[in-house]
Amino acid sequence: MGGIEFLKGHGTQNDFVLLPDIDGRLDLTPSRVATLCDRRAGLGADGVLRVVRTAALGEQGGAGRDGAGPGAEWFMDYRNADGSIAEMCGNGVRVFARYLVDAGLVTADEFAVATRAGERLVRAHPDGSVTVHMGPATVTGSSVTTVGGREFSGVAVNVGNPHLVSFTDGDVDTLDLGEAPVYDTDFFPHGVNLEFVDTTGPASLRMRVFERGVGETRACGTGTVAAVAATLHLAGTDTGESTVDILGGTVAVTVGSGESTLTGSAVLVARGELDTRWWDDAG
Ligand SMILES: N[C@@H](CCC[C@H](N)C(=O)O)C(=O)O
Question: Is 128 helix (H, G, I), strand (E, B) or coil?
Fold first, then answer.
């Protein structure tokens, strides 16, 4: 066949096309990413995970080497569904790790993955779930967002990528996220992921998310870490743990000073080959 190898996977139903590109040869343009992620014209996904050996990155402009330090053999080149580049993807890195283990590209259960936000230590569990050390979740201020004419104030949190976490007082399931919420572009000049959260128990949250570069998704791993960090911040602490229910399932989050972890599912669904003519046309 000679097509381009792909896999399809998801982490709590945040879904991805994986492109194994061990030697860094694929020309992954924004247009190809957007067409791949299109649920009618392509395979359909919230994002693309290009799997590339860190040593093969060289000085590639489009892929960006930020975060690809010398310690991690594999670099997660994450792209949003609209073709834009993001620093980090918490659900994506779990699926990325599951692929590396299943493909025999790593043999240890615990290893580092390079991302644009820095290296992330991951641990693959026998039940298929993966824990990711997500680095610091840093509160950077407060801002507002408007959904359907209703304004929410929120806590801005950086988890390698930007988030604004708003608490909706029991209304999270009624919000209409079909249209992009409005946010302060002066506060977030590079865009922002918007989380809407209800507190459902002493250590449990319910969350929906409107992701930068994608739209509403069924889960956002960095967003769940941001949600727990924001909850703790409002309670006057920076250490704690919580489960977070999202549309696609449940994840477990811990936040400590300077470090956080995310544990959740990582599922590989299918593999196949992209038609090379379709790939060329999508370029
Ligand atoms: N779904 C991801 C986050 C992906 C990146 C995000 N859309 C951004 O642009 O920052 C996750 O699981 O963290």
Answer: coil
